[in-house]
Description:
46% of the residues lie in helices and 17% in strands. By secondary structure, it is an alpha+beta fold. It folds into 2 domains: 2-166, Homing endonucleases (Endonuclease I-creI, Roll), CATH 3.10.28; 181-322, Homing endonucleases (Endonuclease I-creI).
Amino acid sequence: MKNKFNLTPGYISGLTQADGSFFCSINLSSKHRFGLQFRPKYTITADLDSKYVLDSIQSYFNCGKIIINNKNHTAEFVVEKLEELKLIIIPHFEKYPLFCAKLHAFNLFKEIVNALFNKDKRTIEGRRELLKYSLSMNVTTNRKIERINILYALLGQKGAKEYEKELIINNINSINTPISNDFISGFIDGDGSFFISFQKDTKIKIGFNITNDKDSKPLLENIKNKFNNIGTIIEGTKKEIVYIVNGLNQINDNLIPFMDENPIFSERASHYDKFRTVALLLKREKPLTLKNKINIVNLAYEMNKKGKHRILSKSQYIDLLKNTNFE
């Protein structure tokens, strides 16, 4: 799939919607105003096997750097120079927008970058506002309450335990701009999953889903509509929102034509190729012969995470197939 990689700006925004982050770290620094240094940062994280996607994005923007984490088997595209954020990253997302909670984070991020770039909000009141923007940017934060107390104290404020009351809450609950096909492709490349289920009764089923935060329901509803309203949207066990398509005809008639026209480019593309092969075979041949069931097992049994979540090993499942009567 690397040779077919045709990067588009909409794809970058879609991948950012899934795997990107807008964040502002706050460092204690005696060299900075009121002892605080604000450092906004834009990142996209990918599996290390998909680093070539981040390399292409870095070339597209002509800025930032790639950081490798061999321990976690990940790569991260990072832009943190203020001028690059102001002149390259922000204009991109103004032209090719994000949605829902990610748009909320971007809007606050933009306020911080503009203030720092233009040397605004340099009073203590202004710095308090930047702190509020920073803490409001993401629903979850790794900052501990003790750390937040220190940040507030440096700006002459007490009672930081109630800081959540001051946060700017995301109220973007609708989508008012068109969602492009390449945006959806990038979003799927980050948060989509193509899976093949090998069941104990030897039936083989396929499915597709997109999982995202609870605030992204309007986005998933728009994508569902884009796919001719196939599938369902449910709430997961951890309050996440999941868009699921399981119907074989729905997949072959709607999902596959869309994906073929709007390809994904990460390592997940190889999963899609196997998924597509199996979907077409399941539709064409009913019932599957033993030979083709074994062919599907050899093709796709270790497709996601090398099959480590399968109850049976590949050889055990093939034995199960051979010991089952077929018409």
